[in-house]
């Protein structure tokens, strides 16, 4: 119930924090490519989305990491995630679609 409240009524920062925590499966305060791929793959399954070509989860995750993994350590930190979503509308739509500016 708390998650639903945050996604509906939370501040933009709270929504992004919630989204980060969803992707950070092992709760180590960073998102690996594997974690993000698992979440995006599951989202595609739920939505019945195509998983081929440019929409393949691994390809999509690589595109996201290329844009928001600013230190290129192959992980997205909480700060990189928040800044990436705040500064890039396409990234925000892909990673935190419930957040509107």
From TrEMBL:
The EF-hand domain, residue ranges: 11-46, 56-91
Keywords, ordered alphabetically: Calcium, Metal-binding, Repeat
Pfam family, one: EF-hand_7
Protein's UniProt name: EF-hand domain-containing protein
Record organism: Didymodactylos carnosus
Superkingdom field: Eukaryota
InterPro entries: EF-hand-dom_pair (IPR011992), EF_Hand_1_Ca_BS (IPR018247), EF_hand_dom (IPR002048), Recoverin (IPR028846)
GO MF annotations in UniProt: calcium ion binding
């Amino acid at each position: 119930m708390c998650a639903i409240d945050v996604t509906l009524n939370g501040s933009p920062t709270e929504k992004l924090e919630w989204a980060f925590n969803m992707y950070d499966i092992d709760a180590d305060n960073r998102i690996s490519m594997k974690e993000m791929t698992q979440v995006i793959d599951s989202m595609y399954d739920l939505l019945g989305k195509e998983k081929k070509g440019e929409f393949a989860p691994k390809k999509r995750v690589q595109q996201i990491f290329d844009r928001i993994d600013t230190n290129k350590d192959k992980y997205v930190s909480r700060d990189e995630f928040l800044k990436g979503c705040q500064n890039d509308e396409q990234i925000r739509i892909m990673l935190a679609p419930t957040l509107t500016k």
